Amino acid sequence: NAGVTQTPKFRILKIGQSMTLQCTQDMNHNYMYWYRQDPGMGLKLIYYSVGAGITDKGEVPNGYNVSRSTTEDFPLRLELAAPSQTSVYFCASGGNLGPNSYEQYFGPGTRLTVT
Amino acid sequence: GQNIDQPTEMTATEGAIVQINCTYQTSGFNGLFWYQQHAGEAPTFLSYNVLDGLEEKGRFSSFLSRSKGYSYLLLKELQMKDSASYLCASRDTDKLIFGTGTRLQVFP
Fold it and tell me: Which residue out of B48, B95, B104 would a mutagenesis test of the A interface target, given it has the greatest number of A Cβ atoms within 10 Å?
């Protein structure tokens, strides 16, 4: 199992450009999440999905979009990149957050700089 | 509302014991997680408490008091490799709300 994979690892964007951060998991997890982590800070939830075809906003969704057409993939789209979106982005997946399956598995992260 | 508080930084000596505290206010609370994150890496799962009490896992233990909105992570026999950030996160229905993390530095 590869677990959770993210591409790219690093990216530099100019202000106003767009890009898609890719996330794939091979653990057949229902739940998938996108977080951003600014330097010295905790994780902020951007969007999450409880299954294919279902997405919901987290704490900081503005400037981002997601889709979940398959169980495996959960891409994050940035439209009109802004310097405030400079951050490290982590994708995570987890089984059903019931009493016996609660752990979230994180991808290695994407370091994004917007200049 | 959602609020999680934990100390920003802590230091300790190799071989010692350290306790990292976390207080939370979460609507729809259903469990408390601890994650470890080394610099430049992704978080990795350490523990999960849903009932009051202490959960022990080797050198690491985690405690939860739901009535007090309080948890702690206890690290025993500290090793240099334990230098990392420790993230407290409360489960709110289908998602986790993370604190800002406690950066632990272990000195020889």
Answer: B95
